[in-house]
Amino acid sequence: MQHLFKLLKQPYPFETSHKHKIIIILGLGPLNKRVLISTMILALFLSSCSNAPENLASRAIIDGIEYVHNASVPLHPDITLSIEEELSIGGEDDEGNIILYAAAYVIVDNAENMYIVDRRDFKIKVFDPQGNFIRSIGKQGEGPGEFQQVGYISFVPDGRLLVMDFQARRTSLFDKTGEFISSHQWIKSFSQPVLATNSSYFVQEFIREEGSDPIAGRKLIVDEIDFEGDQLQSIGGFKLPEYKVHSEGDMMFGMRIPHSPRSIFAGDLKNQCFYHCLNNYYLIDVYDTTGNIFRKIDRPYDALSFTNLDKEQFLNQYADRPDRQKKIVASMDFPSIKNIAASLITDDKGNLWVQTYEIKEEEGEKSTAYDIFSQDGSYVRKIWLKMRPEIIHSGKMYTRYTDEETGHTYIKRFKMIWSD
């Protein structure tokens, strides 16, 4: 009995000697102690009688938030992924016309049609699953349904298309056939969105307090904006990377310090939630559309060292840059360890893919480790990829590719083959 009370008093995440699934419910209102203790005894008894694997996640609900504490090894450590290229869109057509001038983003609808942003052609080009061109949406211009610089596209759950134009500072909506519906101007400085609903979208905003440093003094929040352009709510507590600042007269220049902690996001269109990770620690917050955290996910992870080779590779990037950039780099303090996560993406099934900084090299090719979490926060798989996926949909993986000889850009689609 004393062991149970000690367990209840431990801050989460906790470690126990029981390598089984344990459910603890706290903070949900007044509970009868006898009922709570009986429930705990029953949970421990059932877990001790089960044949649950040692890497099964432990879970606790504290003050309405579910904490999912994963083991360092995934549930399915032996499952591997191989990919086979099955489609490439780009290059030139039979008449010598360029198909994609500068492919920037791709999204896929439920019929597996591909919507590709061509930044230099100022259009969204739509292709069927076989790669045949169907139609284009928009054109260069300042009028309704026209673009100056498309920076982001996404579907909303009902199938409409949301487009953010960072040059025009405007968000537009199109119907399923590509017809323009409406648009609104931005009053604030928006960055990448994190989630779209049927009536609004959540978008990152950079803010700066009056009198603070114009570069280092910026803060990051997430706003919910409706399709009329009105702000519905604002969520704070997020972090921008740190910058090294250099001044020359009235000019000020800033450069991001490598592996300084920063907030990264991914939206889950299927489950209408979004993920946030302050990427120097393996803890992922899951937000609902009311702006509240309803789940926290973690797993043990040893950060990688930032080596002298990493420093050398970083410095080499600026060997031919302007002197002001070289001065910033020369005075920069480098970190001792790397961040945990480089990016987050979700697939159409609601699984979360975490791109780490873990890299291996085989036969001259580098692969990056991705951790995959199921919808309930369980760490299920770890895979290695030689490319960075833009989107994962219907068992397919899509990525951008630029031919170094011709300069042509492509969107490539790969079939995903999982081992048993």
Structural features, described:
The chain has helices spanning 2-9, 33-49, 308-316, 323-330, and strands at residues 23-26, 58-62, 65-69, 81-90, 103-108, 114-118, 123-127, 133-137, 150-155, 161-165, 170-174, 180-185, 190-196, 200-208, 218-226, 231-238, 243-248, 251-256, 263-268, 273-278, 283-287, 293-298, 341-346, 352-362, 365-373, 379-385, 391-393, 396-402, 409-418. It has two domains: 2-69, no CATH class; 81-418, TolB, C-terminal domain (Neuraminidase). The longest helix has 17 residues, at 33-49. The strands form seven sheets. A seven-stranded mixed β-sheet has the order 1-2-3-22-21-20-19. Strands 4-29-28-27 form a four-stranded antiparallel β-sheet, with no helix packed on it. A four-stranded antiparallel β-sheet has the order 5-6-7-8, with no helix packed on it. Residues 1-31 and 35-52 have low confidence and may be disordered. The chain contains four helices and 29 strands. It starts with a helix and ends with a strand. With 420 residues, it is mainly β.
Topology overview:
Layout: H1 2-9, E1 23-26, H2 33-49, E2 58-62, E3 65-69, E4 81-90, E5 103-108, E6 114-118, E7 123-127, E8 133-137, E9 150-155, E10 161-165, E11 170-174, E12 180-185, E13 190-196, E14 200-208, E15 218-226, E16 231-238, E17 243-248, E18 251-256, E19 263-268, E20 273-278, E21 283-287, E22 293-298, H3 308-316, H4 323-330, E23 341-346, E24 352-362, E25 365-373, E26 379-385, E27 391-393, E28 396-402, E29 409-418
Parallel strand pairs: 1-2, 3-22
Antiparallel strand pairs: 2-3, 4-29, 5-6, 6-7, 7-8, 9-10, 10-11, 11-12, 13-14, 14-15, 15-16, 17-18, 19-20, 20-21, 21-22, 23-24, 24-25, 25-26, 27-28, 28-29
